[in-house]
Design goal:
6-stranded mixed beta sheet; 4-stranded mixed beta sheet; 19 helices; alpha/beta; single chain
């Protein structure tokens, strides 16, 4: 067990489990600054601990020393080892200033340092104390390894091992001041998890920004290329136009059609954990390139496949997804129809209720299909003003695809394709298998789980964007091209649709369960994490995201 994980266990058992067992990681300012302060040690290759007998007659000062102990079942990398003969002192570097705490240090840091001392003892050295060096205040704090601290340390090692082998993610801390500074707070979601589990939380804290700082980079210039220039990506078009984008500002990269990417650029993206998605010109997802061979948290995928194979669990999740989609379709019509249509609203409400009690996936798919037909029968009425012409062409063709036969269907198909991409990258990042769904059954090459999770977002994200673009005159007939019986977007039209899609995902909305404002992009991630919590039995039921 790494000594750093024992530190994390004493600080927060849930954090230690997420990092060590599930392999989760995310950076914040504290972790980046911590790596900077440790850069000298981290840049040096690890070396084994010097032999205590061989060094008995001289002083020693060595960095990046690797220690282990079979007795303790622990391992540690010492920032600095100071030894005089057989007497050794571990020195551990800490960012920040000396805390105003008992012993001038917090227990997690003292336990980690004491574990290093116990490892030195098991390797033949005498060690009665260590030093914590606080970089910001440039102060050394001596820590005595007394019986009480040693007992605390050995119990922490045993407790961390019990936690790791239990297979159960510890419960989140309750209203803890530790949470806001934690780098994994957006993965742990302490208050949100308690709300999902049914606990009463007076006011859930929004501990992550409503909108993420990094955004996707879409490249669709045919013949274009992406290269690396320092800490930036350099996008070059066939017209020799060059655009630079900082890696820091990129959450993912989407390549449409014939776009090249250099090996250095790809390595830089994968090193930062930034996925690359490959699409055909029409936007349909062809594949995803991620660092490594998949998310390290296999327990999520095991739970996902077990639930998908269980008729009751899988059907229960699928019911909620379809119910959410139908309710959001009803909301979109109610907000935008020029005249009230109580009969249609009543039927959609009825279909949503029936979805909650559908006896099988086949019946549920039938309910979803009937609701979709009722929804799209009125869809043409949502276009007015500058978009009146779009309503006429949609009324003549209704919903169609593969290939779309009119301008509205061309936009809807493109929006659904990039929505699949957005949801797909979210589920892969969290650790799911995107090809195993609950509503959409397995089919070769179909990202069934991404299609499942996107259902509740089709009306309120994709359909909403299409309606607004036509009605506000952002799209006209000149933005489309007709080939044989198919209609597709011109490159300029695709750029406008991508921009409008990003604006919609960045728009904030009040979350109905969590009672704070959050962007639609963050909502998609929250829904995927809610599904994860359900599968890992941290939440009782999946609740679709619906708006009023």
């Amino acid at each position: 067990m790494p000594a750093r994980m024992v530190n994390e266990f004493v600080y927060c058992a849930r954090l230690a489990y997420l990092e060590w067992v599930e392999g989760e990681w995310d950076d914040n300012l504290d972790t980046i600054q911590g790596r900077w302060h440790h850069r000298r040690v981290d840049d040096e290759p690890s070396t084994p601990v010097p032999d205590a007998e061989a060094e008995a007659d001289r002083q020693l000062s060595a960095r990046s020393i690797m220690l282990s102990s079979d007795r303790l079942g622990a391992i540690a990398k010492l920032d600095l080892l100071e030894a005089e003969g057989r007497v050794a002192t571990p020195v551990d570097y800490k960012r920040g200033r000396v805390p105003d705490a008992l012993h001038r240090a917090h227990d997690p840091e003292r336990v980690q340092l004491c574990l290093q001392g116990l490892l030195l003892r098991d390797n033949g050295y005498e060690c009665t104390g260590g030093v914590l060096y606080f970089v910001e205040s440039k102060t050394r704090v001596e820590v005595l390894f007394d019986d009480a601290l040693i007992a605390m340390t050995e119990e922490a090692v045993r407790g961390a091992r019990r936690m790791a082998t239990s297979g159960q993610l510890p419960a989140p801390l309750v209203d803890s001041p530790k949470c806001p500074r934690c780098s994994l707070v957006g993965i742990c979601l302490p208050d949100e998890t308690r709300v999902w589990s049914g606990e009463h939380v007076d006011e859930p804290r929004r501990l992550v920004p409503s909108r993420p700082d990094a955004l996707p980079l879409y490249v669709q210039a045919q013949g274009g290329s992406i290269g690396k220039d320092g800490d930036c990506l350099k996008v070059t078009t066939p017209d020799a136009d060059v655009t630079k984008v900082r890696l820091l500002d990129v959450s993912s990269v989407a390549l449409f059609g014939n776009v090249q990417i250099t090996t250095p650029a790809m390595k830089a993206l994968l090193a930062e954990g930034i996925p690359i998605t490959l699409h055909n010109v029409s936007g349909w997802l062809s594949g995803v390139v991620n660092a490594g061979i998949g998310h390290r948290n296999v327990s999520v995928r095991i739970a996902q496949h077990r639930a998908a194979s269980d008729a009751d669990i899988g059907l229960g999740i699928a019911r909620r997804m379809v119910e959410g989609k139908v309710l959001n379709q009803r909301t979109l019509l109610r907000r935008n129809l020029p005249d009230a249509d109580p009969k249609r609203m009543g039927l959609l409400a009825m279909y949503a209720r029936h979805a909650k009690s559908a006896p099988s996936i086949e019946v549920l798919m039938g309910i979803e299909g009937m609701a979709a037909r009722l929804y799209f029968e009125a869809f043409s009425q949502l276009f007015r003003g500058a978009g009146g012409w779009a309503g006429e062409v949609f009324a003549a063709n209704r919903r169609n695809r593969r290939p779309p036969k009119d301008e509205v269907n061309a936009v809807l198909s493109f929006l659904y394709a990039i929505l699949v991409r957005e949801v797909g990258t979210a589920v892969v990042r969290i650790g799911f298998d995107p090809y195993r769904g609950f509503l959409h059954q397995p089919h070769y090459g179909r990202p069934s789980l991404a299609l499942d999770l996107m259902e509740e977002f089709r009306p309120i994200v994709a359909d909403s964007v299409a309606i607004r673009m036509f009605n506000e005159g952002e799209l006209t007939a000149r933005d489309f091209v007709r080939r044989a019986r198919a209609v597709s977007l011109q490159p300029t039209g695709r750029r406008r649709v991508l921009a409008a899609f990003e604006r919609r995902l960045s728009q904030t909305v009040m979350h109905p369960l969590l009672s704070y404002s959050v962007s639609y992009r963050r909502v998609i991630e929250l829904q995927a994490r809610l599904l994860r919590a359900v599968l890992l039995e941290e939440a009782a039921v999946y609740r679709a995201f619906t708006t009023r």
